[in-house]
Amino acid sequence: MQAQIINLLQSLQRDLKLTYLFITHDLSVVQHISDRIAVMYLGKVVELGSTEGIFSTAMNPYTQALLASAPSLDPEFRQERIILPGNVPDPAQPPGGCSFHPRCPRVMSICSEVEPALVPVEDGRMAACHLYDGQPGGAPVRPSSSTGEQG
To answer: For residues 38-68, b (16+ Cβ closer than 10 Å) or e, as one string?
Structure first.
């Protein structure tokens, strides 16, 4: 039934030149029907880009963990799982700075202090992560041991 509905939506989209805002947690559906994706964490966009770009090279650590958690029907494809520590924070009282910082495997000291802006990183893609702050072409920031970063 789900496949029939998705096929109908795609047919209508193609024939009537429609644009959909499709909200789901089902990554296989997202990959199948979307041209562009906005990945959200606690109600904020953390990565935005083409479906192909995000599924091939996720940039935000939350997006990477999210995609690593998706099961694959391809027995040859083995994705390393990313196990996130802790629990999802209360959306009514999100942590300061980057809301993902308590669970992020690449957390730096700035993450708990400053909310990252959604910035262009490459090829029309955007990411909200201090790993990419102010770096032309989306080059990641290299954590230094003198600033107290972890991971």
So the answer is: bbebbebebbbbeeebbbeebbbbbbbbbbe
Q: Which of 84, 64, 38, 35 is nearest to 140 (CA)?
A: 64
Q: Which amino acid is at 110?
A: I
Please state whether the predicted TM-score (pTM) of the whole model is above 0.90: no
**pLDDT at residue 131 tops 60:** yes
Structure tokens at 100: 């993902």
The torsion of the CA quartet 94, 100, 102, 103, rounded to 10 degrees, works out to 140
> What pLDDT is stored for residue 150 in this prediction?
40
Amino acid at 48: L
